[in-house]
Design a protein that fits this description.
Shape: flat
Strand content: under 5%
Distance between the termini: 62 Å
Structural class: mainly alpha
Helix content: over 70%
Number of helices: 13
Order of helices and strands: HHHHHHHHHHHHH
Radius of gyration: 28 Å
Number of strands: 0
Length: 301
């Protein structure tokens, strides 16, 4: 059958697929893309402004004495925040020693032993609620349980009380990341271990936990980063000390509480030390977040 030449030409016509910027939908898309970019910059701008301001105000006093000397008395000269740096390390270490074993153990129970009903649902719900509890509530709780009762061999404010308060804040992150990290491990590995006669304990300790090490470590680092910057719980528990730490059962200086105290004093040197301590604390938390991102990238490989 013969078709008219005009019909053949219309069927063979190729549509124009080139981008037309003047079309209404393309103009709207470009406007929305520009708007999204502006909002993204506005989201990051406060972070950049805070980091830049703290850097400008705090870096001028960073020297050897800043890391090795005690804070000066009001109106004094020189000095540093060496005791607060050491105290922050001590308190954060105590918190990690309490929160990591309990949190990892709770995550293992949720992922490996629980049936997903009853008690395990209660634990997940409680963990989610605890993650949203204000940090000052943890401080007041530990103050009522440990500090005011003098339950720790008659001591009140102490480094161990501060570490316990910070561990309460760390627990939800450690539990949730451990639970989710173990869920990412393939069940085929568990079945293979059970198939060769391995017990559940051996399977968890030798196969699933090492396989989920990276996401668990990421959660641990993030929880430490959160605890290191808290102030309110430490005011109620560790208090403050202008001297070097005497032990974990005595009041102890920390960077966050030092910043809180010195920033309110009417002395330029104390205010400057508060800015420098803020800079050091921001750098420490920033480094922990970079470490957590590195662990996250390792998990995705």
């Amino acid at each position: 059958m013969n078709y008219p030449s005009s019909t053949i030409r219309s069927e063979a016509r190729v549509p124009d697929l080139s981008y037309k910027g003047f079309l209404k939908r393309n103009l709207g898309s470009r406007f929305l893309s520009f708007l999204a970019g502006v909002f993204s910059i506005l989201c990051v701008l406060p972070l950049i402004a805070v980091l830049a301001y703290v850097l400008i105000k705090g870096i001028s006093t960073i020297n050897v004495d800043f890391f090795t000397q005690l804070p000066p008395p009001p109106g004094g000269q020189g000095g540093g925040v060496g005791n607060a740096i050491l105290g922050s390390i001590v308190v954060t270490t105590i918190a990690a020693l309490i929160a990591i074993p309990i949190g990892v153990g709770g995550g293992i129970y949720l992922a490996e032993y629980s049936t997903g009903r009853g008690f395990s649902q209660f634990i997940r719900f409680g963990t989610n609620v605890l993650a949203g509890v204000p940090s000052i509530i943890a401080g007041v709780f530990i103050y009522g349980v440990i500090v005011s009762t003098r339950i720790l061999f008659g001591h009140t404010f102490s480094a161990i009380a501060g570490g316990t308060a910070l561990s309460v804040l760390m627990l939800p992150t450690v539990v949730k990341t451990t639970d989710e990290g173990l869920k990412l491990v393939s069940n085929d590995l568990r079945r293979a271990a059970y198939g060769v006669g391995a017990s559940r304990f051996v399977t968890i300790s030798q196969i699933t936990l090492p396989k989920a090490f990276t996401p668990i470590a990421t959660g641990v680092v993030l929880s430490i980063a959160r605890a290191a910057g808290e102030t309110a719980p430490l005011i109620f528990t560790a208090l403050f000390s202008p001297f070097w730490p005497n032990g974990i059962f005595d009041p102890i200086a920390t960077l966050s509480v030092l910043i809180y105290n010195f920033s309110a004093q009417p002395y330029d040197l104390q205010n400057q030390l508060a800015w420098s301590a803020s800079f050091l604390l921001v750098v420490f938390i920033f480094a922990l977040n970079l470490l957590a991102r590195w662990f996250g990238r390792m998990a995705n490989k």
